Amino acid sequence: MVDIKKVAVLGSGVMGSGIAAHMANAGIPVVLLDIVKPGEKNRNALTEGGVEKQLGAKPSGFVHKNKAKLVTCGNLEDNLGLLKECDWIVEAVLEKLEVKQEVYRKVDAARKPGSIVSSNTSTLPIHELVKGLPPAFAKDFMITHFFNPPRFMRLLEVVKGEQTRPDAFEAISRFADVTLGKGIVECKDTPGFIANRIGVYWLMLALLEAIRMGVTPEQADAVMGRPVGIPKTGVFGLFDLIGIDLMPLIAREMLHTLPESDSFRTLYTEPELVKKMIADGYTGRKGKGGFYRIHRVECFSCRFFKQCRYGFALFFQFCSKPIGTVLLFVAQTVDQLKWPVFPVIAHAHRFIDAGNTIGNFRHERGGVRQRSR
User: Fold this and answer.
1) pTM score, two decimals?
2) 354, CA 20 to 30 Å: which among 10, 45, 248, 308?
């Protein structure tokens, strides 16, 4: 069985950089490669930018900023030689068959024999992905569909082809389960696999019906969220998270492979509103905004707390137990009542534990996040 000690991720968009970050979270060294951005002096601008976005995300794609040191950034022109060091190569490039196959040909020429290659595709069937590629490549190839954000979404869909080596499939499934903490679901090689076969249908139906009925994003998400047992993002919030520009690509690929009698063909149409949003750069959280725009505002007291946090940590570390107990009571009371008062006290209880030290002090998010259309 293949022993996975180093991983490469190809594509540094939202999913690619997120997958790389989660590999690093597990202590696995990662090579992150992407194209060279035209006109950019820094040839690794895309991959370095992807890592920076993961570090700056709220919440971060990394469990700690030091984990980012495990990610080596490069590009698909100058650094393909790094693939010889990798045991597993994850492709997460644009959801277009011709683009993926072009990348696979480069990978096959550069990788070491026996290394496993997988695609993060959410819709393309595996038999289409390996069509025309060498049999040796097809034997080492499979699909590993991560969900966004990879650090928090436990589901991982895995698909093996007719030629996929059983030991390679078992190695990735075990590694993803034990090392990455994923819940593995083996899927058949059908359009959209399981999650997207269901999810894309109901998302598109919800979007089209909301537009037809004149329902606002806030109203739709208030109902189609936690009240029906799905995440609070609801419909429109999930579009923003996934990427509004990605949904038409997924839908088109599904239409390419679904049978003529499938009801999705009758349902699907791309609304003019969505076309205009994509054209204007409103692609969701990764763009200028989407159906929602998130503003993060940091209050004065939170800024003050950040600037003085180590001093407060030192103070509370050496507090006598009786004083610490009183402060803990005050802090918990302020937290529970949500009083709009100096939040430093509300954070105090994080430093009163007997085993707490300045060295392991971590300040969680401060500030107010305001969500508006």
Assistant:
1) 0.72
2) 308
